[in-house]
Amino acid sequence: GTDFVQPAGAPPVGGGGPFVGPYVAAVVCQKLAFFTGPVTVTAGQISAVITVQAQRSNGTPCDPTSVTVTLTSSSAGGTFFNSAGTTQLSPAQVTTDPANSNKASFTYRDTVAGSPTITASSNLTNAPQTETVNPAAANKLSFNQQPTNTVAGVSISPAVTVRIEDQFGNLTSSAANVTIAIQNNPGGGTLSGTATVAASGGVATFSNLSINKTGTGYTLQATSTGLTAATSSAFDITAAAVSTLTFGQRPTDATAGVSISPAVTVQAKDSLGNNVPSASVVMRLGTGSTGTLSGTTTRSTNTSGVATFDDLSINLVGSKQLRATSGTPSVTSTAFTITPAAANKLTFS
Known about the structure:
Immunoglobulin-like; 0% helix; mainly beta; single chain
């Protein structure tokens, strides 16, 4: 494995007769190698001293020649310091010392937990080495799975998750309790479900959170003792399906063929009492009410959950009722009277 060369002044092979030894070991540098093994360091801390060496191909130092070594890391958070760990190297370079077995030393700092590969390179064969960077102490919370727009009373899905991170944003292994509460509460809602959860592997999962009132721009806040709290992104709670209908403005007595005035209104609500917008409401004559109901008999509720029927009329006189439906839910109005219109023609009886 050792490279050999002829001494200076030896006759070349094939010219002037063969050289009669001895050959001597070559001193030319061929590669870089890590003299120290992989290090384990906490994020944000300075590592133990790391040493590289310029070597021959057989792994022995090539003492007579110093080498400038450029240091790089696969991690975006990696930086290099002098061997004392006091000064950042800029540029990230060290020079081997022939008087010290052609070695050069440095230290390493990284803010990103993981297994970064640091590489020592020069005009020689490069040397990579994988280090280990562990998270620092738990410092703050952050939402991983943000809350999403959800129907009132239904569990937020996917489940909301909160990370326990170090100061650099690395996930820790903490098992601390994390508590969720409503922060911005545009609808005056109540948060239901398991609001305090112990983290597992640094992640707290909230699988059954729900809010009972509609609103636009809810936010949640996550807290844990001794850690910086986190606020979620905004999300909306929308109404569930129509559960109940009620007449707001009930139909009043009217003249045959003339629109009922004031306009009849119907309020649509879900099972939690939230107004249901954009619900289709159909109006018909109630059971036993004779005649034909004219006008626009299907209306959609507005943002307040109200459907307005402003052109309803009935052609026959008598006591009447109206019946409003929206899917299965329905409601029947109180009775009202349709009276004859003004005399218009004569007929023989």
